[in-house]
Amino acid sequence: MSVKTLKIDGIDIAIEEGTTLLQAARAAGVPIPTLCHLDGVADVGACRLCLVEVGGSRRLLPACVTEVAEGMEVQTNTPKLQEYRRMAVELLFSEGNHVCAVCVANGNCELQDVAIQVGMDHSRFTYRFPDRGVDVSHQQFGIDHNRCILCTRCVRVCDEIEGAHVWDVAQRGAACYIVSGLNQPWGEVDACTSCGKCVDACPTGAIFRKGSTTGEKERDRAKLEFLVTAREKHEWTR
Amino acid sequence: MAKTVVIDPITRIEGHAKISVYLNDAGTVEDARFHVVEYRGFEKFCEGRPFTEMAGITARICGICPVSHLLAAAKTGDKILAVKVPPAAEKLRRLMNLGQITQSHALSFFHLSSPDFLLGWDSDPAQRNVFGLIASDPDLARAGIRLRQFGQTVIELLGARKIHAAWTVPGGVRSPLSEEGRQWILDRLPESFETVNLALNLFKNLIDSQLQEEVQVFGAFPSLFMGLVSKTGNWEHYDGHLRFTDSAGNIVADHLSEDDYADFLGEAVEKWSYLKFPYYKPLGYPDGIYRVGPLARLNVCHQIGTEAADRELQEFRDRAGGVPTSSFFYHYARLIEILTALEHIQILMDDPDIVSNRVRATGGVNQLTGIGVSEAPRGTLFHHYQVDENGLIRKVNLIIATGHNNLAMNRTITQIAKQYVRGPEIAEGMLNRVEAGIRCYDPCLSCSTHAAGQMPLHIQIVAADGQVVNEVYRH
After folding, report:
1. Is B174 part of the contact surface with chain A (CB cutoff 8 Å)?
2. In CATH terms, is domain A101-233 a member of 3.30.70.20?
3. Phi-psi region of B442 (alpha: psi -120 to 50; beta: other; left: phi over 0)
4. Are A102 and B166 an interchain contact pair (Cβ–Cβ within 8 Å)?
5. Chain A neighbors of B49, CB-CB under 8 A
């Protein structure tokens, strides 16, 4: 395997070919905010928070799905990127119905964390207040589409780790939403193994344990890593 | 020419309202109306939410008494789960409500109402507030503020925050009281007792001397009283059953369950206020006027059940010469209730169960309708939810303490206006008395209309031909 050398925010890095810019930056201790990225499952570049500037490219590139290349010069935190990231988060807030005060994930929410990280104190965009539903037909879990940011972590974690592929994305553009089974109530989807990985994967309070009240959501993220390590390396350690 | 005086906004209350005083051709007061000008819509936007979220959502109705909503919502949730909450959870819920009664009553008495008694009705309005009180009697003001802090800290020790602690859940509560928390409460109780006794002595002296007229004029009329009482007919704030008594002390209806509230409570609507007018159904509208809150709770109960509070209750009844019916006595009743709450807190602190970890029962959706009741500082609060089979809210009805007192508040300000308001030239002190008629009830208008915006008094003087001839605004 060959090694590529590049610079991220002026730091010289030598790293294996095939590594993503996000992995390379994290290995070098350079923080890049993310929302749709989840260790252990494939990246899709949905949230656009990890956009970086790469010398020679006029486009901004998502670090999670861009592989390192020889001689790359990458900037991760320019004023332009800061502005774009903040805008992306503001758009996420204005797109759904995010009412932190009464949310199960309040205080333990990656959307909240990212909003603080990018310095968002309000949204400059008009809130859409979409009419979205809540599905609590599953015996143990519920999904509140009002809080969904369409990161598709649930879709990937269910497909790639659990192998059940309960979740998918329906419709297009602004009308997109997450469906269970063939757009059935979650409680009627036979494929669901009730493993709860989607609850652990969800960055917001969209997928939650039923009965949870304000700020009560807890995630066992380490379990996802444990499962991936167990399967790929046959090491059952946490 | 007949005229109307408008007081808008009313100050030192919780929420937004205005008062219209109607004058006849002779220039004397014909009628007065208390208009609540807020609209909020909680009942509508809760539809479609999981019932487990209701405590968190409805607590946001109010920053003063969120605990009342936390309790009523959780008790409604208990019924939907069809579970009995663990004994420790009930005691902890009671403890939080007692903390709230203490802090809310302390706020009402020391911060909002006492400037009128201690600085004078006609004193400079710029000074007639808690800051004026701090300037004139810093020790009393400090003690009052610390008493409120005590109540707020009890809430914080349980729910991790003073306001909007989403701590009660269907089936119990989320976390127990820590041993350190119990110790803090025990350490601060003696000072809190001292403050309430100081305030009681002060207020009793005022009632016996310079506030005698107020007792006669501020809402002195017969009405029914409604409140929770315990199984034995004692003072209650969390559970038990509902009782109606009349001004002679007779029990009009007893052993009523919150589940049947629609059978005995009606809600009338007037086009000039966003606040509904509940009435006791058997007597119809508006004859079914009843009062709730501290005065009502002390009137419906046989006794309180704790030593010092019972002594004060007896003295209270003796002082009134029977059943205290004047709404001015709400202030007095509030102080007795603080004492009651402190005594009950003391009892709970000595209960080993109070630091138990068994505090939450779980269950699924086992009933599609639930009605929960609790005694908010201002009176009886009902939450009524209908859910679908998965527990999503289909319908919500909230009957708020302040609403029950709506008819009584209107009658009180009419009585005060008739006594003090003369002609279209209205002195500020006269209007302050009319406002104070509302303050007796310590209304929480944000709660009772379930608005956003500023908080503040608007008095209008309206002529017989409907023309507004004088208006006073205060922001």
Report:
1. yes
2. yes
3. left
4. yes
5. 134
Contact between A136 and B174 using a beta-carbon 8 Å cutoff = no
Give, in degrees to the nearest 5, the angle at Cα B200 between B351 and B305: 35
B66 SS3 class:
helix
CATH architecture observed for domain B84-211+326-362: Orthogonal Bundle (1.10)
pLDDT digits (tens, 9 = 90+) for A100-132: 999 999 999 999 999 999 999 999 999 999 999
Is B301 in contact with B225 (CB distance < 8 Å)? no
Whole-number percent of chain B with pLDDT over 90: 63
Model pLDDT for residues B302-326, shown as the tens digit of each residue:
999 999 999 999 999 999 999 999 9
Q: Do residues B185 and B349 touch, judged by C-beta distance below 8 A?
A: yes
**Coil, helix or strand for A56?**
coil
Q: Check if the beta carbon of residue B312 is closer than 8 Å to that of residue B350.
A: no
Classify residue B199 as exposed, middle or buried by CB count within 10 Å of its CB (0-12, 13-18, 19+).
Answer: buried
Residue span(s) of chain A under CATH 3.30.70.20 come to: 101-233
Partner-chain contact B174 A210, CB within 8 Å: no
Q: Return the residue of A nearest to B49 by Cα.
A: A134
Residue ranges, comma separated, of all CATH 3.10.20.740 domains in chain A are: 3-77
pLDDT in tens, B146-179: 999 999 999 999 998 888 888 999 999 999 999 9
pLDDT in tens, A208-217: 999 899 889 9
Architecture of domain A3-77: Roll (3.10)
**Residues A168-224: tens digit of each pLDDT:** 999 998 899 999 999 999 999 999 999 999 999 999 999 999 989 988 998 888 888
- Kind and range of the H or E run holding B386: strand B379-387
Q: Residue B106 has which token pair?
A: 């302390």
**Which is it for the CA torsion B436, B438, B442, B443, positive or negative?**
negative
Which tens digit of pLDDT belongs to each residue from B401-431? 888 999 999 999 899 888 887 766 777 777 7
> Does B174 sit within 8 Å of A216, measured CB to CB?
yes
Q: What is the phi/psi pair of residue B174, to 5°?
A: -85, -30
Chain A residues in contact with B166 (beta carbon < 8 A) = 102, 213-215
ipTM of the complex: 0.85
How far apart, in Å, are the Cα atoms of B165 and each of A199, B89, B173, B266? 24, 15, 11, 32
